């Protein structure tokens, strides 16, 4: 029997019936699993492509000329990183905290992942009568996350592990990526050591965040992941998330090399000063 849907005075959606919210999410995110492309899919991928093109264009305009290829790549990546964290993941946080549906019969089973409800049964934000997340909105940014939730349904609802990571991502990693762009644009006027240090911090955080996003799933049998559809598995889960492992890994390699060069130059300069004093 399908759940009843009615509008309560506050304007939120009231869900009731024998089917739990977890079952509804599972059904809604897997019902279109066979369809590879939908309008939402095309628009979501197009918006991501636009951010890449915007980051490339702005990098060409903002960096002083002439610009080395490595500097251009680093600036483009960190600008794209900032835009993605702020616009896309910022919208996820907004829907996680401010978009909700009212539940007729609250139950811990209404959350898609064990991390969503604490062992003592305490509900998210102290509202057991509500279920939060992008699944409860028709806003374009919510539809984007509903599309991604076809691959990982934790993103359609409120998962406290994901939200905890995204709070750091949006409010720490995003601004730090923008600051790195500023340092790259002004590298001719400032010491280069600070930019390589910031890149090291950010890249390490990106890789750690990716591990903490998927480690709970690996330890619980990938219960929230849809690996039966090749596009959801390889494009959404592997490629999109792999970018934030492979590219930060490359950034770490470059940054460590530059920091080693700076360290050696410092040691050589200190050695020269000691020799002069000895004379």
Helical stretch tally: 7
| Dominant shape | elongated
Computed over alpha carbons, the radius of gyration is: 23 Å
List SSEs in N-to-C order. EEHHHEEHHHH
Please tally the β strands and state the result: 4
Q: Helix- and strand-based class?
A: mainly alpha
Overall residue-averaged pLDDT value: 82
What is the helical fraction, as a range of percent? Answer: 55-70%
Give the strand line-up of the largest sheet. Answer: 1-2-3-4
Largest sheet: 4 strands, mixed
Question: Which oligomeric form is depicted?
Answer: single chain
Low-pLDDT sequence parts: 1-34
N- to C-terminal separation?
93 Å
Strand content is 5-15%
Please provide a written account of the structure.
- This protein is mainly α and 279 residues long.
- The protein contains seven helices and four strands; from the N terminus they run ββαααββαααα.
- It has helices spanning 21-30, 39-62, 69-98, 140-148, 160-185, 193-218, 230-278, and strands at residues 4-7, 13-16, 100-103, 130-132.
- It has a four-stranded mixed sheet with strand order 1-2-3-4.
- β1 and β2 (13-16) form a beta hairpin.
- α2 crosses α3 (69-98).
Give a quick set of tags describing it.
single chain, mainly alpha, 279 residues
Topology of helices and strands:
Layout: E1 4-7, E2 13-16, H1 21-30, H2 39-62, H3 69-98, E3 100-103, E4 130-132, H4 140-148, H5 160-185, H6 193-218, H7 230-278
Parallel strand pairs: 2-3
Antiparallel strand pairs: 1-2, 3-4
Helix pairs in contact: 2-3, 3-5, 5-6, 6-7
